[in-house]
Amino acid sequence: xxxxxxxxxxxxxxxxxxxxxxxxxxxxxxxxxxxxxxxxxxxxxxxxxxxxxxxxxxxxxxxxxxxxxxxxxxxxxxxxxxxxxxxxxxxxxxxxxxxxxxxxxxxxxxxxxxxxxxxxxxxxxxxxxxxxxxxxxxxxxxxxxxxxxxxxxxxxxxxxxxxxxxxxxxxxxxxxxxxxxxxxxxxxxxxxxxxxxxxxxxxxxxxxxxxxxxxxxxxxxxxxxxxxxxxxxxxxxxxxxxxxxxxxxxxxxxxxxxxxxxxxxxxxxxxxxxxxxxxxxxxxxxxxxxxxxxxxxxxxxxxxxxxxxxxxxxxxxxxxxxxxxxxxxxxxxxxxxxxxxxxxxxxxxxxxxxxxxxxxxxxxxxxxxxxxxxxxxxxxxxxxxxxxxxxxxxxxxxxxxxxxxxxxxxxxxxxxxxxxxxxxxxxxxxxxxxxxxxxxxxxxxxxxxxxxxxxxxxxxxxxxxxxxxxxxxxxxxxxxxxxxxxxxxxxxxxxxxxxxxxxxxxxxxxxxxxxxxxxxxxxxxxxxxxxxxxxxxxxxxxxxxxxxxxxxxxxxxxxxxxxxxxxxxxxxxxxxxxxxxxxxxxxxxxxxxxxxxxxxxxxxxxxxxxxxxxxxxxxxxxxxxxxxxxx
Length: 631
What we know:
The protein is mainly alpha-helical.
């Protein structure tokens, strides 16, 4: 580990503590044990952060750990009351095989830490992708305003008093900034913490709940996840999709606690506690990104239908009528919400044949990733085992994930495609992640069944056959390395590259930010082309910029400057005066997203401008100008 990462160890430990400790007391009181305890603690911790971000501005508190702890204390009190009511009858709930599951989770956590450190390269390397401009600046916006509420994320809507944007990610990162020293390293530290802690635990939790007869499957789930490259690494190389990342990481936990809450034989107090935990998981997932919650709900439809069938089957005529009415009403509401949440952009079109898409499903290597040969085979074994055990709703949920993926990547009927996957912007990458939510637990089941078979072969004296299967499995596992290497290479060479050849912000431009701080006053307002990384002056220094993101509603004067500032005309000066612009950043012509429909041509080629004076420069292209000659 390089020196700059070693300096972030305290911030990393605090990030891990934030993800677990606020919810741990309540999870203990709910009698969760084993990996379920850690899964429940993560659910309640993230729910505490999300609810705290909503509560803080209501009660007049600035964003800090205090609102999180207040919510966590309230949840703990509720869990304590439920524990007290039926403390003598509720049994502890466990998931997975105690010893081996911790080995699997631990290996996976260390593996993800190492992969991400190598991929990101340096703790101070900012993401160089389009959405990174918004997300890094949004963290600074939270810090500046002391407000992480999703209803107050108005950064790209100057003058607005309220809007909605999911801010769980930004709330988490903002809490870590004081320990990481700046927004960029805090973002990278939280990225590593969430992937290394939440993802292995979430998969182990769900797998343990789905397949309690195969206890070892929960131990394999975090390990087979390395063979599914589209998530989480794909979300760091596409977007970058930080809110979708924190939302999707929680989907297995939503499914797990909904299923747990419906388990037979629980006392009412424990069932209520688990139901409230499931609701908390849904809320935290929605505040991560609403599309993640909708994905979780879609995957739960077969489970809900199965439970409804059981209730109707065991009840009388009136019960069946109620079940049918409730089912129809739920379907109508879900369809209405699905339509309301549709955010189709038609920016991403189908790009695959049906045969190719089915092949990607079969190998669990979606979105054109390098194809590995083991995880898909293990998933097939898991599917076959689920068929033999008549776990139909699990297979139905996986079929829904497959159907959504096929719609996104292949379905040529665009209107129908958008009505199905429009809640994910018709984006195949975001939809493909859902394949892993149930595909990986099924692959883990397949791994557990295979290991049982190998063990049986050894006990029967067929050692050569067992060894042969192990060797073949290792060779097949090695085929997944190519996808991981490709993702890490792309992270190093594109997504997090931070030198003179970065596609967005270069190291020289970041150095200019430091120099600019000496020139800028507290009331300075800076304009620059956000597509060049100039917008990140805000995240790096806290100084206000006209364009904190590429898109937004900044007004006619800002639009005029974006198109015409380099003309130095009287109209330009009038816009400068009305906005209060004092300085201009010019980072040359290299852009992180070329051919974007928003035009910032007027913020380039400023060297000869009659109204600007150069006040700082680093290298050939990174220049800070002061507005000096507007009347």
